[in-house]
């Protein structure tokens, strides 16, 4: 059943092992006019916002009408499902597909808010070393034939999990926070990506009031080291925690500034000529409100 | 639609609460290696089965799971509103201790059988197997019902996992809660077959006797 | 070993500050950075310019362990064994790790293994060497979920563990937008070793390579000191993070030890 995800012709007619028809997926052309892009979202350092970024950029792209699939490559420590609020819908996962226990269609989970957005969850009780790189690559190739965007949420680190997440991708987004460890690790990761790639940068969790006081690296400091095209800068916002608590990506919240930033990033990814969203360092009650939230001192 | 009206009257809980509940389900699913929707089905099926025997107040029923020393116990608190006419007993055994509504002095509530624990319990429940890694279904002692529901009894259920029989009805994982037959009366389908077999044997015997009688009378 | 599953919750910061707090109390402490390929403990301690040899070279026998240990200039009894930066975690085996920790334990009162994120080779190496574990988590869904996996693996390996809940935002706990320390301990079914509030000064201290415990005016210095005492077996009341002027108001959440 390698046909299930190797050949686009077969995949569009695949029915589930239990005979369930592809009710969830609308008919997709056998081969799309242009193959979808497979973007790995990576960082090296853990906890900088890869999963949050994958979920939000994915949701924003889908809201803009693109067909998107999100792949959680963090085998053993999956979280993309929970950030999207889809954890109760996970029946099958990436390894089930790679090991041909189920078809791709059975494993893909449609988002509850958008018909254009699908998730392929990671296995929770398996190891990253269980994923065979060649199979992962083949799967991503198949997904590129069916979706306009394949976003791969990379695990922390630069070991097997990272290598598998990169396999099959043709572009990378580096997520980095303005902290020395994160910048160091991002730099290492850039060096490990294929030479012909031009990865783009998202600087996440900037705290403008700290940058102003000189207590946090600025955007220029970070990109002076990494020297990557800047896709966007996102301010640190406590609402991200709330959004993850609820499983509702901020990109779908019209009132959220962070959501707006993710939507702008999505637009840029689609090739629209928008300026990379940045965070203003000066003035405004918004920033003083931010300051009071982050002060945290008794 | 109903959810919309519900949300009008019941304010959304703070997201920390939501996070806790989602996390509990997710961790349970991770520990049991059961997909979350299977756990939900398990709860629904449990309520449905119990409601075949007794009428229950499903709106106030609660089925939760509790982690104990790295094993998981299922706790069911299910208010009973009435008793249905008993049909043929099904494939598992219920040990029920009715708890009277404490109008005068409250009766001490008999503790439901804790099947996973090794010490012997006074109630007559089938001796539990060593089922340490499997989740155990049991009911907690329920607090005294409120005055509004005074006429109703609350039933404590200890659902004992009996010695395993071939083909348990679990959903395919060894960690699933298994409720299996134990000393139960023979299910109706098998009884019919048994009676049919007995009837056939009896008919054959009578036929043989008659034939022998005919032969005997023929010879005589 | 100091582990978490999830990355970015504060393992390295905790390793550095706990090590420093123990050293301040007069104990001999050796910190080992096992995040081969993505080392950061040297950066957090501010000793990155003094690295000569690393963990991999020690286990491969290309240098003596004493040659690789970097003595911290601010604490008389704190050393760091840095990770290699251009190698992979598979360069060290579990057997080698175990032997290394045994060797180092003869030189110090505490050997603290700073574990990388994840549950792969680096984690398994750390388990091989460790006698007890500290699981660091933040009060967030993803972090707790990952911590739960780690707790499971540690329990299966028979390693006793305690919890540090890091980067707590009391104002968010109050509004119900963040889980409380009690919630986290209950969900993970683990004993609490310490509860550390979020403090943006930590970012600055890492920028400068000066562990926050060096700043006596910062509340985290006292909190890490308490954690160090609890690690030694003392029963120390937990600081109430939510009361205003909380230094003056203490209550016991848990009996430790």
Instruction: Identify the CATH homologous superfamily of chain A.
Output: P-loop containing nucleotide triphosphate hydrolases
How many domain modules of chain A?
Answer: 1
Based on CA atoms alone, the radius of gyration of chain C comes out at 17 Å
Arrangement of strands in the largest sheet of chain A: 3-4-2-5-1-6-7-8
Helix content of chain C: 25-40%
Question: Distance N terminus to C terminus of chain A?
Answer: 61 Å
Question: What attributes does this structure have?
Answer:
heterotrimer; A: 298 residues; alpha/beta; Rossmann fold; eight-stranded mixed beta sheet; 14 helices; disordered N terminus; disordered C terminus; C: 257 residues; four-stranded parallel beta sheet; four-stranded mixed beta sheet; 11 helices; 15% strand; globular
What does this molecule look like?
The complex is a heterotrimer of chains A (298), B (220) and C (257). Chain A is an alpha/beta fold and 298 residues long. In chain A, 38% of the residues lie in helices and 14% in strands. Chain A is globular, with a radius of gyration of 19 Å. Chain B is α+β, with helices and mostly antiparallel strands and 220 residues long. Chain B has 2 domains: 2-184, no CATH class; 186-220. Helix content of chain B is 34%, strand content 16%. Chain B has 4 helices and 7 strands; from the N terminus they run αααβββββββα. A 4-stranded parallel beta sheet of chain C has the order 1-6-7-8, with helices on both faces. In chain C, strands 3-4-2-5 form a 4-stranded mixed beta sheet, with helices on both faces. Chain C is built from 11 helices and 8 strands. Helices cover 39% and strands 15% of the residues of chain C. The chains are: A alpha/beta (298), B alpha+beta (220), C alpha/beta (257). At the A-C interface, α9 and α12 of A face α7, α8 and α10 of C.
């Amino acid at each position: 059943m390698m046909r299930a995800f190797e050949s686009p012709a077969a995949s569009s007619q695949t029915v589930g092992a239990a005979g369930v028809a592809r009710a969830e997926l609308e008919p997709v052309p056998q081969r799309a006019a242009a193959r979808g892009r497979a973007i790995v979202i990576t960082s090296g350092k853990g906890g900088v916002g890869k999963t949050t970024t994958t979920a939000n950029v994915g949701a924003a792209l889908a809201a803009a009408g693109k067909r998107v699939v999100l792949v959680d490559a963090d085998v053993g420590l999956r979280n993309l499902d929970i950030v999207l609020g889809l954890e109760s819908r996970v029946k099958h996962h990436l390894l089930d597909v790679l090991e041909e226990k189920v078809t791709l269609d059975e494993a893909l989970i449609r988002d509850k808010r958008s018909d254009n957005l699908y998730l392929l969850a990671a296995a929770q009780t398996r190891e990253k070393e269980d994923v065979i790189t060649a199979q992962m690559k083949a799967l991503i190739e198949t997904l590129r034939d069916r979706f306009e965007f394949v976003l791969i949420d990379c695990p922390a680190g630069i070991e097997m999990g990272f290598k598998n997440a990169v396999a099959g991708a043709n572009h990378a987004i580096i997520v980095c926070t303005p902290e020395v460890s994160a910048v160091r690790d991002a730099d290492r990761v850039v060096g490990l990506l294929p030479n012909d790639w031009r990865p783009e940068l998202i600087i996440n969790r900037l705290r403008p009031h700290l940058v102003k006081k000189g207590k946090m690296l600025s955007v220029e400091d970070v990109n002076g080291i990494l020297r990557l095209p800047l896709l966007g800068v996102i301010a640190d916002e406590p609402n991200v925690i709330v959004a993850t608590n609820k499983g509702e990506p901020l990109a779908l919240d019209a009132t959220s500034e962070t959501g707006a930033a993710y939507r702008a990033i999505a637009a840029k990814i689609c090739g629209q000529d928008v300026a990379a969203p940045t965070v203003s360092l000066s003035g405004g009650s918004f920033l003083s409100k931010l300051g009071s939230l982050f002060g945290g001192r008794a | 639609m109903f959810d919309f009206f519900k949300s009008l009257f019941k304010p959304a809980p703070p997201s920390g609460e939501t996070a806790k509940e989602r996390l509990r389900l997710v961790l349970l699913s991770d520990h049991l290696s059961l997909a979350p929707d299977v756990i939900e089905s398990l709860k629904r099926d449990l309520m449905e089965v119990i409601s075949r025997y007794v009428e229950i107040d499903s709106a106030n029923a609660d089925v939760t799971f509790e982690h104990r020393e790295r094993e998981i116990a299922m706790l069911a608190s299910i208010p009973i509103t009435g008793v249905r006419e008993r049909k043929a007993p099904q494939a598992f055994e219920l040990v029920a201790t009715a708890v009277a509504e404490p109008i005068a002095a409250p009766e001490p509530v008999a503790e439901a059988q804790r099947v996973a624990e090794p010490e012997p319990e006074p109630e007559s429940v089938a001796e539990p197997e060593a089922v340490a890694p499997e989740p155990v279904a049991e009911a907690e002692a329920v607090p005294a019902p409120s005055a509004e529901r005074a006429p109703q009894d609350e039933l404590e259920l200890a659902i004992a996992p009996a010695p395993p029989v071939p083909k348990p009805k679990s959903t395919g994982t060894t960690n699933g809660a298994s409720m299996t037959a134990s000393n139960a009366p023979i299910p109706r389908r098998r009884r019919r077959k048994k009676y049919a077999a007995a009837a056939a044997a009896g008919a054959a015997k009578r036929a043989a006797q008659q034939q022998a009688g005919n032969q005997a009378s023929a010879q005589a | 070993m100091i582990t978490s599953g999830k990355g970015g919750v504060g393992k390295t910061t905790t390793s550095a500050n706990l090590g420093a707090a123990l050293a301040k109390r007069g104990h001999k402490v050796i910190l080992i950075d096992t995040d081969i390929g993505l080392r950061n403990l040297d950066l957090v301690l501010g000793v990155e310019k003094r690295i000569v040899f690393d963990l991999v070279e020690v286990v491969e026998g290309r240098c003596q362990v004493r040659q690789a240990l970097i003595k911290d200039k601010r604490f008389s009894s704190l050393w760091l064994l840095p990770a290699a930066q251009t190698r992979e975690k598979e360069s060290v085996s579990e057997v080698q790790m175990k032997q290394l920790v045994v060797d180092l334990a003869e030189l110090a009162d505490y050997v603290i293994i700073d574990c990388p994120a994840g549950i792969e080779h680096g984690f398994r190496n750390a388990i091989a060497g460790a006698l007890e574990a500290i699981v660091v988590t933040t009060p967030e869904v993803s972090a707790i979920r990952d911590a739960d996996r780690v707790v499971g693996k540690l329990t299966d390996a028979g390693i006793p563990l305690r919890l540090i809940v890091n980067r707590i935002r009391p104002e968010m706990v109050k509004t119900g937008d963040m889980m409380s320390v009690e919630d986290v301990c209950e969900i993970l079914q683990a004993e609490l070793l310490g509860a550390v509030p979020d403090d943006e000064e930590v970012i600055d201290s890492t920028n400068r390579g000066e562990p926050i415990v060096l700043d006596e005016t910062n509340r985290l210095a006292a909190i890490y000191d308490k954690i160090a005492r609890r690690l030694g077996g003392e029963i120390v009341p937990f600081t109430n993070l939510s009361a205003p002027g909380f230094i003056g108001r203490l209550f016991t959440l848990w009996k430790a030890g």
